[in-house]
Amino acid sequence: MDDYLKDDIQQLIKQIREFLSTKVPEFLNTQDLQTIWGSVAIVVAVLFTWRLLLAPTEPQRRVPKRQAPTPSSSQVNGQPNSNLLPSGVGSSVEDSTQTANKILHPVKLTLGQIVRQRLSGGRKVTCRLLGIILEESTPEELQNQVTVRSSVLEVVMEMTKFCDLYLMETVLDDESEKRVLTALDNAGIFSSGGLVKDKVLFCGTDIGRTSFVRQLEPDWHIDSNREINSQLARFIKCQLHISPIQTERIASNVFNSSSLEQFFGV
């Protein structure tokens, strides 16, 4: 409160006090009650006004203005800030985007991945040579020549990288056996792949080949002889029957394909 205002109020109170000190006795002598109560009312009003003027006034609180979000906190280069999104929304949007990209742009599998996928993780595989890896289809043809199918080499190489692969065939003489080993060596199966000559097995009859397979207990057996596939169906988990013409399924765990390349999608 201003000092001048305080001085004025104090001066007014002083004058009222002097007025009352001189007039009250006169009021009491004349016993004019109406005048007395009027004077009292004036005094009460003055005192009440004085109390109001002297009462301390609290400063009015200012309500802070809400600041608008700056462009840097809400948006950068036109992209919404991930911190403004509810918890989990950002990761869900990212996962959905990645899933959509995989559907629209599927990843092309390598041959090695395809081989692993089709063999269902099998670690040991036995495979006949005639009609599958070799062009010839009978033991008699091996007595004259041996021709390795170039289109199958890449698949065989991939199989040797992660599978324990055994190749086997029925031959009529030792010369046929040597021709087969020489043809496989010239094709690069022993040098470039993980196959060794000790894993190429020869026998004199189909019964002997069946016995080899049962002793090795492979996860997969690949053969071009329907009869041997049927005999091994009870003992081998998965089999692949290779034939020139698509044939019907022999058993629930035997698959048919016209060639090894077709089976692996080469």
Q: What does this molecule look like?
A:
The chain has a six-stranded parallel beta sheet with strand order 5-4-3-6-7-8, sandwiched between helices. The chain has a two-stranded antiparallel ribbon with strand order 1-2. The protein contains twelve helices and eight strands. The model is unreliable at 72-80 and 246-252 (pLDDT under 50). It is 50% helix and 12% strand. The chain is rod-shaped. A hairpin with a 2-residue loop joins strand 1 and strand 2 (79-80). With 266 residues, the chain is α/β, with parallel strands linked by helices.
Order of helices and strands: HHHEEHHEHHEHHEHEHEEH
Largest sheet: 6 strands, parallel
Give the overall form. rod-shaped
Low-confidence stretches: 72-80, 246-252
Instruction: Tell me the helix content.
Output: 40-55%
Summing up helix and strand content along with how strands pair, one would put the structural category as alpha/beta
Indicate the proportion of strand residues: 5-15%
Structure annotation, total helices: 12
Oligomeric state as shown: single chain
> How many angstroms separate the termini?
99 Å
Structure summary, number of beta strands: 8
Q: How do the strands line up in the largest sheet?
A: 5-4-3-6-7-8
Q: What is the residue-mean pLDDT, rounded to a whole number?
A: 75
Q: How big is the Rg?
A: 53 Å
List keywords for this structure.
266 residues; alpha/beta; 6-stranded parallel sheet; two-stranded antiparallel sheet
List the helices and strands and how they pair.
Blueprint: H1 3-30, H2 33-54, H3 71-74, E1 75-76, E2 79-80, H4 89-104, H5 111-118, E3 124-128, H6 139-142, H7 150-162, E4 164-170, H8 174-186, H9 189-192, E5 200-203, H10 206-216, E6 220-223, H11 226-232, E7 238-242, E8 254-257, H12 260-263
Parallel strand pairs: 3-4, 3-6, 4-5, 6-7, 7-8
Antiparallel strand pairs: 1-2
Helix pairs in contact: 1-2, 5-7
